[in-house]
TrEMBL record, chain A:
InterPro entries: AAA+_ATPase, ABC_transporter-like_ATP-bd, ABC_transporter-like_CS, ABC_transpr_LolD-like, MacB-like_ATP-bd, P-loop_NTPase. The keyword Transport applies. Keywords: ATP-binding, Nucleotide-binding, Transport. SUPFAM superfamilies: P-loop containing nucleoside triphosphate hydrolases. SMART domains: AAA (SM00382). GO terms for cellular component: membrane protein complex; plasma membrane. The keyword Ligase does not apply. Residues 12-250 form the ABC transporter domain. This is ABC transporter ATP-binding protein. It comes from Sphaerisporangium rufum. The lineage of its organism: Bacteria, Bacillati, Actinomycetota, Actinomycetes, Streptosporangiales.
TrEMBL record, chain B:
This is PadR family transcriptional regulator. Residues 5-79 form the Transcription regulator PadR N-terminal domain. Pfam families: PadR, Vir_act_alpha_C. InterPro entries: Tscrpt_reg_PadR_C, Tscrpt_reg_PadR_N, WH-like_DNA-bd_sf, WH_DNA-bd_sf. PANTHER family: NEGATIVE TRANSCRIPTION REGULATOR PADR, TRANSCRIPTIONAL REGULATOR YQJI. Residues 91-167 form the Transcription regulator PadR C-terminal domain.
Amino acid sequence: MTTASEAGQPAIRTVNLVKIYQTGGLPVPAVRGVDLRVEPGEFVAVMGPSGSGKSTLVHMLGGLDTRTSGEIWVEGRRVDTLNESAWAVLRRQQIGFVFQFFNLVDNMTVADNVELPALLAGTTPRHARERREYLLGELGLADKADSAPAQLSGGEQQRVALARALANQPRVLLADEPTGNLDSRNTRDVLRLLGEVHRQGQTIVLVTHDGRVAGLADRVVTLLDGQIVDDGAVAPRRRTRGGAGDVVELRS
Amino acid sequence: MRLHLLALLAKEPAHGYELKQALEQIFGTAYPSPNIGQIYVTLGRLEKDGLVSGVDVEQSNRPNKKVYYCTAAGREVLDEWVDSPTEGPRVRDEFFMKLVLAPLTGIADRMALINRQRRHYLAIMRDLVDLAQRTDHDNRPAQLLIEGAMLHLQADLDWLERCQEELT
């Protein structure tokens, strides 16, 4: 799928990216000069307190919010200057997005919600169906294929949103708190799937406060007041003696 | 570990190695496999305090083994343990002390300390996720023990974030 001009390019690059919201007169800076580079196949977790600009950042990367100044590049192509419809094409073909509040189509079944992006991108119905069956199966939702989104719990809807975002095997998966509504068991399914697609080479940039999700990432970027205050690898894997955990502390 | 062994012995008499195996089986890999010497030392103390009693059992072709059982006094201590509420974890965090005190001396920067600590916590979290995946799903005590560790660690991460907001 990679054309010659894209080879060697970062999956995502931002240059001095700024977002200032103008609400009721006072300008509120949300993102203040972010330089970020994400290599193909890299998994980057964006962390930081609420109001630090992390959701705004990932929304801008997906074209869901416009930048105030600076540049956004996706696979060597400048995209911050694209219009709405060009962004729609880009999202259909290259970027999968998992929203905090799902945005599923209510009058379509779960199966159709997941298959739709693949069909819109020109995949054959058979491939779209196979991919959907695989993703829903991995997320423990195989028996919900014929349900309407409204019949599902919040956690189930969130997993459907993840399946939909991955349906197209997008070049980049963007997600905003993809485990925000999940209990432990459902989070485990999401963690397993994220780990698996990442091993298959999926580039992932996601906002999360959940340490279990961030721990899977290759790199953690921390924002504070709209600026990157930390950017680096998670500490190397620790080796415990004999593989046993030290989850509990023993005292004799 | 005293009371854990006492609880197991109240269920049925056992020798040291059986107690080690029982702990490993119940709690899975999340429980650091207790060293057998540690178990014998603990049993010795329990016996000295009159909470357990050991009897030598003859074995053919092998040295005698000592089987321990829970005494009436042991049972009382166990009842007391079960009946009293358990203290929650206290905030007595070594990292927090470092975070507050080290910058006063000028030898460390709070932002750098917090960032390094976050990456360290995330590495531990990743190990816990691995451990949960490697642990038998049907072993509920083991899975819940790991889940508890994850929840505590998440609280530490959230607290770290608050420290970063307020102290840097």
